[in-house]
Amino acid sequence: MTSEAVRGRPSAARLTRTPSIVDRLRDADSTKIPFSVEFSPPRDEAAEARLWRAVREFEQMQPAFVSMTYGAGGSTRDRTVRVTGQIAEETTLLPVAHLTAVSHSVAELRSMVGAYADRGISNVLVLRGDPPGDPLGHWDKHPDGVEYAEELVRLVRELGDFHVGVASFPQGHYRAIDLEQDTRVLVDKLRAGAEYSITQMFFDVDDYLRLRDRVVACDPEEGAKPIIPEIMPITSLRTVRRALALSGSALPREIDDRFTAAAGTGPEEDRAAVREVGIELATSMCERLIAEGAPALHFITLNFARATREVLTNLGVCEARV
Question: What pTM was computed for the model?
Fold first, then answer.
């Protein structure tokens, strides 16, 4: 399948060039929970070198897949395509490309999907995306674009044999009226052809379990599709607070208090102490998620491998680095 086929009519051949994420999860070693990791496009040469060090270290750990994020408003579009393509072509990893609707026309979205197809990438994580500049600001549909992620799921599925995932929100999306509406939106995305979802990061496992229960109650058939929990091993309190604020959420009070105590009262947070609490919390969350039957674990890495490796070592999923 080529970009020309994608930009024009849907391909009649509909050939699959890479495994789907659902296939990877189903075929994983039954003695260990599968895991995946999220990378971000590097902003300069030094950051790119750091990314590739993490890529090569994770490659040895054999994740089920890796995903590459996509900047608001397409701010990292070209870099995202290039690096995701390189991972597909130069490593043994299975990449999932992010695709957002914000600030893009349908023609541009077709072009993006075509660019991924040219690099042999058929797994796409579809997101509506956040407005550039202010993620919590007003969301404006591109005049020639799509309004909702559900529409983007349908668009990608119509363009060829792509495997599509979507986002889900254990605490509800901040733009949703309530959890009931948020659940219906997720179910609609799954009904449109999404095969699985990856959650926004969370720090209360009960929120994930309640999300899973809501989806099953709303539509048992769609509720059978994997909901993959996203975990962020916290190594900097300042970093995680900033990331959560941009998504309209915050750390639960009890957990924030633990990290605040670890960070100390000095002008700079005690990173070693924060990191220790972060690894402990991520490990305990993962242990409970595994016990509750989560289909996989997805880690935010910030393009570093060490913290995720430590959590996976604690879980017995991989060996400590010698």
Answer: 0.91
